[in-house]
Every structure is written in C-alpha cells, then in structure tokens.
Design a protein that fits this description.
This protein is α+β, with helices and mostly antiparallel strands and about 180 residues long. The protein has one domain (about 30-170). It has helices at about 5-10, 60-65, 75-85, 100-110, 110-120, and strands at about 35, 50-55, 100, 120-125, 130, 135-145, 150-155, 160-170. Strands 3-1-2-4-5 form a five-stranded mixed beta sheet. Helix 2 (about 60-65) runs antiparallel to helix 3 and helix 3 crosses helix 4. The radius of gyration is 23 Å and the shape is extended.
Length: about 180
Amino acid sequence: MNFFANWFFKAKTKPIPIEKAQYEKPKIDCSSLILLSGPAYGDKTFFGSFVLNAVSIRDWALDHSTSVWSTANLEQQARVFLPVWLDRVSSESNDFITLIDMPMRQVLVPYAYDFYLKGWLSVYCHQCSEFYDTLIDNEHNHQKAGHTSNWTEEWLCPSGHILHHREQEIRLIVKKTNKE
C-alpha cells in the first residue's frame, strides 16, 4: 500500500474512545470512626491522626453530594457515593477505625477544620498518646507583599505538639481598570 492508501485506511477506522476512570467503591463497610488524615496515610502536613465521627457527618455528606461538584471524576463519584456508604454505619461499630481511599479523602480532608469546629473530629497526638477534642489554632508568620499573602497554619494539641503544619499562600490577580 502506498502512503495515501494507508492514510485513508487509518482515517476510516473507528477512534478508540477514552474511558473515564470509575470510582471503585470500598469493599468494607464504614465503622463509626473514619481516619481522615495522619501518618498512616503518609501525610506530609498532618502529624496527628485525625479521626472523624461517621455518624455525625451523614447529613452533611448528603447535602454536600448534591450541592458541590468537581471536575475530578473520581472525586465527584466518591462525593456522590459517600452518603450511601455512610447510611450503613452503625453507631455500635467502634471496634475499628475505617481507612478511606484517596478520592474520598479528597472530598473530606478540605473540611477537616470545619468538622473540628462542629465537634465531629478528634485528634490523636502520637507524642502524648492521647485523644483530644480541643486544638490550639496557631497561625503565624503573616506576610503581605503586594497582592500576595503568606502565613503558617498550625494546629497544636493542648500540650503544644504540632498536629498539623502547612504553609499557606494566596495570590490575588487584580485587573486594572481604566479610569477616565
């Protein structure tokens, strides 16, 4: 076959569709406690183990699944599945703490501080070997240069051990308007 015949032959074949990744639902049921973040996941910013009360977040998860949307396909599928998974939680199943997969963590971890403020989150300090319901919120090193703000966010246990440490930055993009 010559070049043109090959080219036309290739053009007539059907394109291979790109399949979107499908969320693989957890194979285990959810216990009443979920490990949200911490060293068990290899987190770089969470040094304590943040444990979420699964029974408490049921209503939040249902509302969140219908009011928030993500272009990240796996994360969105996990968001929609989360209330279904939480409906099977028994308040008596305190025998173990459930570890969650990455898409579910992407849904829940950004709300860790909100969960703490609502009283749905406990933190285990590995240095104290103690669970705490109270954190010390320590933001420092605030700097502002032009349209950029930087600061350090830390959450401490009552004994002063760092449970979460993250460098934060916000950049504002401001469009100049022409004043006549």
